[in-house]
Amino acid sequence: MLDDEQLYNISVTKENSFYFDNESFLNVDEYQRQEYINSRDASVAESVRLLTYIEQCKSLNLEALLSLHRAALDISMLARPLMETMRLIIYNWKLSEANLLISHMVLNSYPIDNDICTNCAEMKFVELGPFLLTQYQSTLLNSNENQHLRCLTNKKHVLIESTVTYEFVPLPAGLKKERWQSSFYNFLFKCDRLLHFLRQQELSNQDDPFQPILERYLEEEEQISQMCDLNYDMNQRVREVFESIKQMRQENSQKLSQLNESLSLNQVYQIINEFITIPTVKKQIDSIKTSRRLKMVKQECIIPKDSINNIIFASFIDSHR
């Protein structure tokens, strides 16, 4: 019977099978107490045997184990860094188009240690050159630390794992208007190639990791345009680009379908790695990874040795300190 339960050519043996008796978790009367104490001790001994067995197992090189789901997760993490970088390209494109590109805009990224999204994070408008920009703060709209838990999970609110600011630097951009424009189109097309791959693998369905972010950018530009006491012509130009992106992406999707493009995992990671080498993208990814580490540390819980009452398990812990 055990041979019938083999999975991925892993045989079921006494050495890699473990038994845990659930009787020790039941409330029992005094007559049965010793029987259940024995049951608990047996389960603890099995736990120690399981942990010892795991220690002796050869570890997998997970970094080398490329999978479809890992690709989907990587693309999901890249979504906001890519869209922020694309928005930066649009800003510089419009500056160049208006012959205002003496200095060019760059992006800064900072890690955060709490869970926030575009719904619950504090947002402010910041004037930078001819633009009015939105900046999300690492603070919540109110002091309730659990506020983010009440945000709707309807894909409309974008998770914020790092904060972003912009500034001008006195360096030549090195790109003319036409090249900024072509850079934008090429960048967007590469992003859509990743989405096309996800949908081919049925890893995305109707969920587009880029679309909620683009919709949010458009909402922000619409908010700025409705500030009747302000006149930001450059923001209007940026808004027109965001309004046209939906049509561009539909055309990209049709083009990719006509080409019948079918990327391998290696080709997908070639695109991903090209994106990651872009300094602006890498900067944001580093911030996101730092943010995740900070949040893990905040949630970390160390169990004092004195609180472990079982002698067998306590001795196992001692041997691994």
Overall description:
With 321 residues, this protein is an alpha+beta fold. The protein has two domains: 2-59, no CATH class; 67-299, no CATH class. The chain contains eight helices and four strands. The protein has helices at 33-56, 68-97, 177-200, 211-225, 233-259, 265-276, 279-299, 311-318, and strands spanning 104-117, 121-128, 131-140, 159-169. The strands form two sheets. The chain has a two-stranded antiparallel ribbon with strand order 1-4. Strand 2 (121-128) and strand 3 form a beta hairpin. The chain starts with 32 loop residues before the first helix and ends with a helix.
Structural class label: alpha+beta
Strand content: 5-15%
Number of domains: 2
Distance between the termini: 40 Å
User: Which percent bin holds the helix content?
Assistant: 40-55%
Query: Spans of 5+ residues with little confidence (pLDDT < 50)?
Result: none
Provide a brief overview of the structure.
The chain has 321 residues and is of the alpha+beta class.
Please outline the helices and strands.
Blueprint: H1 33-56, H2 68-97, E1 104-117, E2 121-128, E3 131-140, E4 159-169, H3 177-200, H4 211-225, H5 233-259, H6 265-276, H7 279-299, H8 311-318
Antiparallel strand pairs: 1-4, 2-3
Helix pairs in contact: 2-3, 2-5, 2-6, 2-7, 3-5, 4-5
Jot down its keywords:
two-stranded antiparallel ribbon; 2 domains; 321 residues; 8 helices; alpha+beta
